[in-house]
Amino acid sequence: MKKRMKKLAALLLSGVLAMGILSGCGSSGSSETTAESAASSQESAGTESSASQEAASTGTVDTSEHVDLKMYLIGDRTPDFDEVYAEINKILEEKLNCSISVDFLSWGEHDTKYSLLFSSGEDFDLIFTASSWCHYEQTVALGGFYPLSEEFIQTYAPGIWDVVPEVAWDQAKIDGQIYMVPNYSNEFGQDVLAVRGDLMEQYGIDEITNWDELKAFYMACAENGMYASQGGPWYQYFQAQGLSTTGGAPNAGELVLYNTQDPSDLNFYYLLDWDGFTDYCHQVKELADAGCWSSDVLNSNDERQTGLLTGRTAGMIWNLGSCLTYGKQANSEHPEWNVTLADPVADMPKKVNPYINNGMAININSQHKERAMMVLNEFYTNPEVYDLAMLGIEGKHWEAVGDDQYRVIDETNYGVSNNCNWGWNNANIQRTEYIENRTALDDTYDAMEAEWNANIKEAHPYDGFNFDSTKVSTQFAAVEAAMGNYYQPLINGLVDDVDASIEALRSALESAGIRDVLAEMESQAATYVEE
């Protein structure tokens, strides 16, 4: 994304969100459990509060004691990651008398292992988080994140406080309290397709701009003995209906959708009460039976890009930037593939994600909360550290072009923006790529990005809403457990009888207490909109 366009879109988005996102993302009805967790957190952090007051009054922070911090990120460690972070640690040692080690939770395991880090009391300091899709609301409800007061942020991360807009802090609030540092960049809540252009040409597919064209391409792949993707295109189906996931709802927001394209529609669309879900499940079974993806997809731990890069699938579904990155890698290794980009909901105005779609949090059990915040301030606002975390080592992985661009030297051993540096995205200092020998894929990307920025949808009140499940935590957990037996097979078309499987899922969710969850969600949403 071009830097100037990012800044312009950020200004536009701030105005949009200021109108559409009300103060605070969490439930307006305070939950006793969350309040008790916050109170306990503040009590256990008494020494930190005293330190904050002393630092604020003297203007200095004591870093005389060396500390070793630990951070968890999402994804997989790339080959040169440790070498890059050794360079980061040289800076942290000099400036803050500390070092940081990093462990990763892979894409395939973070859903099951994230909460275990907190329930087991594991000793670590910082962790990536995100609203809805990466455990923010759930972990706050469990009391896993350290609450960040304005004084604490201003004292230990003054650079972050100056950069992050007020609307982003408001989005991060649950029951009036901040538990994460949001990223500062525009990110579209819309996936696209990185697809092999040679196969589109071979199959006589001119474009993929809507659901019917996407299905036609998938069926053409199957007829020619090629897997189209690594699973069912569920998101593409409901996004084509104008729907979006609901923050904090079960299963990363997927069980309850809302009409993000119509701000006047304040209904929630619970999947088992929505005819569209049944329609999708029948269509996707047709695709699965035809062989549009492997029947063993539910047992696979492949990353999203694996199928495309290995030539096993004709396409990959992900966000615009990731599709560009892996599309370019595929083309560099197999120029004959002519990988391009396709938008299966091309005529739909685009949703810009809240700033809390990526962020960082401090573990409530961290023994070095102040130093952790100071380190995060370096990642977020120190251009040297920022460039290392995003691009790798200058002279080895990339080289500077002017003051705000970069040219890739080695894209494979570290990877541009490929190591979960998204939690501290900062559009003010982020470099954009200089492309000396532009390709058709670069031109397609720029054109699509420009179209999206010119077609940002109107804000919906629920764009900033995040459900707090604390009052129905037992039912919420039971609902998520019940979905595990039926949901993934259904959305990937891997069931023998669609209608019977939907009824089995419906019965399981009713027994688990889904109606209690829905009633509490509707109550919170009504209060949220009213405020």
Automatic annotation (TrEMBL):
One of its Pfam families is DUF3502
What residues does the DUF3502 domain cover?
A: 461-529
Q: Residues annotated as region Disordered?
A: 28-62
| Domain of life where this protein originates | Bacteria
Q: Which InterPro entries does this one have?
A: Bact_solute-bd_prot1, DUF3502
State the PANTHER family in the record. Answer: ABC TRANSPORTER SOLUTE BINDING PROTEIN-SUGAR TRANSPORT, ARABINOSE-BINDING PROTEIN-RELATED
**Name used for this protein in its record:** ABC transporter substrate-binding protein
